[in-house]
Amino acid sequence: xxRWLLILTSTLALLGLTxxxxxxxxxxxxxxxxxxxxxLNQYQRRADLIPNIVNTVKGEANFEQETLTKVIEARxxxxxxxxTPETLNNPEAFNKFQQAQGELxxxxxxxxxxxxRYPDLKANKGFSDxxxxxxxxxxxxxxxxxxxxxxxxEYNVLARSFPSNLTAMVFSYSPKPSFTVQNEAxxxxxxxVDFNKK
Length: 198
Fold this sequence. Notes:
Elements: H1 2-18, H2 22-58, H3 65-80, H4 91-115, H5 119-123, H6 125-160, H7 164-170, H8 184-188
Helix pairs in contact: 2-3, 2-6, 3-4
């Protein structure tokens, strides 16, 4: 009798495991990895464009060297960070990578604003083409990041919901970090517009 009870309990436990979310964790984990790979792909595309942009800008004799140096340094810092699949499960490494990419994006933005003061550079066809490619890449980065954020959200909801959170605890599926805004307080402040300044 005890043996049949043990077999029945084991069978019920196995049937319960089929609905525990284990397969969903596998699917969503792979989905977040694929979405992350696309983010990295777009960041690499941007990093590959930067040397061409810098070389084109260097052709402008009077261009501010400090602006170029900041872009080059930010690119070097961003590409020096080794990204592995474990980065997705390490909030500190993920934050470090995200911060380096944010600094690179800011340096590129400053470069593009500075270019506005150089009419010869703005009229340069090669630079214009590179600028369009960079803008397209920034849009692709945004789309890839949004897809990653959605994939992480699905995964994290599963990891925190009952009863799948029990499966998450048993198999060590901890919530994954998502992209955050580094300067949240700064962007929450509305910009000051004064049309009286000259």
